[in-house]
Structures are given as C-alpha cells and as structure tokens.
Amino acid sequence: MAKERIDKLIASQGMRSRSDAAKIIKSGKVCINGAVIKSTSFKADPDTDSIVIDGERFAYKKFIYIMMNKPQGVVSASRDPKEKTVVDLVPEEMKRPELFPAGRLDKDTTGFVLITDDGAFAHYILSPKHHIDKTYLATTDTIIDESYLEQMRNGMASGDEVFLPAQIELYENTDSPVYKITLHEGKYHQIKRMIAATNATLLALKRISMGALSLDGSLLPGECKELSDKEVAQLKS
Length: 237
Ligand code: URA
Fold this sequence. Notes:
Blueprint: E1 4-5, H1 6-12, H2 18-26, E2 30-32, E3 35-36, E4 43-44, E5 51-53, E6 56-57, E7 65-70, E8 100-101, E9 110-116, H3 119-126, E10 134-140, H4 146-154, E11 156-158, E12 161-163, E13 167-172, E14 178-183, H5 190-196, E15 202-210, E16 213-214, E17 224-226, H6 229-235
Parallel strand pairs: 9-15
Antiparallel strand pairs: 1-4, 2-3, 2-5, 5-6, 7-9, 7-17, 8-9, 10-14, 10-15, 11-12, 13-14, 15-16
Helix pairs in contact: 1-2
C-alpha cells in the first residue's frame, strides 16, 4: 500500500484514538525500520516498513471481519439514538471507526451477523448477483403441513411478493419443532412472512450460516470472534 501518516495508521486499527497514537509517538515508543520516530506526520508503509510500538511488532490489517452471535433485542446497525446495536457489542480490541453489519437480522432474530469495515466485501456478499446462501433455524409452535413445505420448496407467493424456492427440512422434532431453512435471497422479513403463510406460528429465529461458513457454536449470545482469511473466503462460497 501507499505510505500513510504513522498516527493515522496506528489509529486505524482501533484500540487507540488519533490523539492516543500521537501521545505514544511523541513519547518515543514507536520505531520505524529500527529508528525512533517522534513526528506524527512521518509516513510509513506497513507492508514494507518494520513498525514496532512499545517493543511489539505492529500487525497492520487493512480490514477486520467479525462473526457475532447476535443476541435478541439489539438492532443490526452501527449506531442508533435509542437502541443498543450490534456494533455497540463489539469488544474494544476489535473496535474500528467504520464498523457496520454486512446484512441485517431483525431485532428479535439471533445468530450469525458479519461485522466489518470492508465496504466492497460487504457489497459483494450482499449483492443478489452472487447469491450467498443464508441458513436459519426456525422454531415453530407446531409441525408445518407438507403442502406448505412444498410451496416453500417450489417458490411461494405472499401478497404481491414471490419468494424463490428455498430449502426446508425438519431439524428437530419436538413440541416446538425446529426447521432448517436455506434462503437464496434476502427479502424483508422473509422467513417471518413465509411461516406466516403456513398453519404454524414462528416462535424463534436464528441464523446459523452464511455461504459455507457456520456460526461458531462456542460463541455465547453477544460474543464475537475475528475471522481468519480462510473463513472470510468461505463466506463467499
Ligand atoms: N427472515 C426474517 O424474517 N427475519 C430475519 O431476521 C432474517 C430472515
């Protein structure tokens, strides 16, 4: 990448504000290619220059990709004047200035939300052209009649909207049956509207995968993990 001001580079990784970055630099804690740099406007390229802060190598990442297990009651937004957002729940060590959720889950839906600061990547995985499948577990109050399951598999109409064929199978047969549903599109309140057109009532909804990447089962509601390059690639397939 091109050279960038060192205070800006340090602040871009979250954790430290621009003024904190300036303080660290002025106190002589930043070395570039072995020399202490005290000027905040000094420019460096993290791909080719060795940057050490307080004795530790500065591992610069252009973008961050975070998997969150979204709890109920938070909104899929960066900020909101009244409601708690998924970005509010991101832990300090992963926080960056431009984070946003790539795709929305309803306030009462739980599960896999991708949070990133990579606008082009988010655009790619959300674009209808690329058809990134999303899989959900839908808990209902009763077994859905076979005729409705067939409609969902063949493509169903709801009001003046037509939904593309979806995959649906019974996942857990209990008093509150759980269905695994894979959508190849993402229309507003799609699963809620599909189930509302059947004999059953939706009790809970959780997203368990995006593309070939599944929600990490060890994440408690509200917890996050940073994705590896391999996992980010799985999101696209
Ligand atoms: N379908 C819905 O109805 N809600 C969601 O949050 C996701 C899919």
